[in-house]
Fold this sequence. Notes:
Number of domains: 3
Radius of gyration: 23 Å
Largest sheet: 15 strands, mixed
Helix content: 40-55%
Structural class: alpha/beta
Number of strands: 19
Mean pLDDT: 86
CATH topology of the largest domain: Endonuclease, Chain A
Amino acid sequence: MTDRFDHGNIMGEVLHLIDRHGLAGELILLGDFILRLCLVIMILAQQRRSPESRIGWILLLLGIPLLGTIIFLLVGETRLGRLRIRRHRRILEALDRPDIHADGDPDARAHSELDRRGSHLARLAEQISGGAPVRGNSLELFGDTDEVISRMEADIDGATEHCHFLFYIWLDDKAGTRIGEALMRAASRGVECRVLVDGVGSKVFLKSSLCRHMRSGGVRVQAALPANALRAIFARLDLRNHRKIAVIDRELAWTGSQNLAEASFAPKPKYAPWVDCVVRIEGPVAKELHLLFVEGWYLDTDESLVDFLRESVPLREDGVIAQVVASGPNFRNQAATQLIQSCIHEADREIVLTTPYFVPDTATIVNLATAGRRGIDVTVVVPKRNDSHLVALASRANYAPLLNAGVKILEFEGGLLHAKTITIDRQVGLVTSSNLDRRSFDLNFEAGVLVFDSDFASNLRFLQQSYMDRSVKVSRDEWNRRHWARTVVENAAGLLSPLL
């Protein structure tokens, strides 16, 4: 963020204005007090909110008159807006049909083929987002941005029916232009091309000449969750669609952590390269990812694409069992963090997690520490330099309890590690768009794929090892000997983690 706010000066000006206006000022203060009291009662009555979030918002409301109230009214509630809520209910009704989901094909159902651990994780994931584990999927893992763009471009050039893309960030750089031009070529062949990009993450792209050319070239481009001052009255502006999904001709899909941008990432070049992990999928799981695109498109356009989901997707011979895991403000609260905690609990020997933003809730920290103390080899890999200084400070507030429990923390030095992955005993792998932070857990629309296959998990673990080889291990002894002032600053940032 380039804009800075001096809250002390703002409050001084507010109080000065109130003092100048006498009785009117006193009425403003009284009204603010009554409103804050009502908001505190409302927060205490909410069942979806975590205890840490309740405490954080109550302290803000009670500690900062007027300004705290304004901040809460803007970003304190998970409000999608009435129109989107109505649309979401309608699309859920339309999608509540056996033939719409991948497991509607009896041959694709895979619950009975999973072992105890896989069955536990799959049932929880299904409760979270409704998608069941399905077999017959062919998966390829990618850790190189240029290779992803080249393969994705080739897939688009081979498309015959449709190309549906959903991305948080789309830049008009070389990578974004290559995919945009490929989509225009596809549209000229009669392929239906739709692009859904987040209204904030891709705001520069939406005003770019590339976007204009794509639209004039037959590609339908739509902003997801567009943000403006008027919408702030009816919906929370920082609820974002953070998913990265591409679906081509129903049977082929991409998902993972990579935005449609070069690894050099022009908006923040000093942290480059961005290091990502992406999965290319052929098989029934592509249908579940397509369902997420159809849902997102309907929320912002009121156009139903359900007919694209009616046909079953052929199973790949010797394919593996996989499952889409989605989360968002329209899902039940704390669903995503419960899946992460279950992954930790199911580890018998080893669990490795990589994430760019590590500000989890208390329960996840406790589960990681508990796993370390019961002898599990627990490794967390994060960037050494983070593009968010405040998040980096809050992240380091969690180091001490983990290091003291035997958890290994590695800081990646080869750029900004943006891959969001988990491996469990080299048997189960998760590749997702979700960070290990409260925003991804509770606010953003996220998507990933959970894979129950030892070969895939081993390949993912090998990719994780390449990150670990370019990282430095945080020493517990050196960490505990740090100057007390650094600890104070980091712990102060950690107190803000429920609000970040």
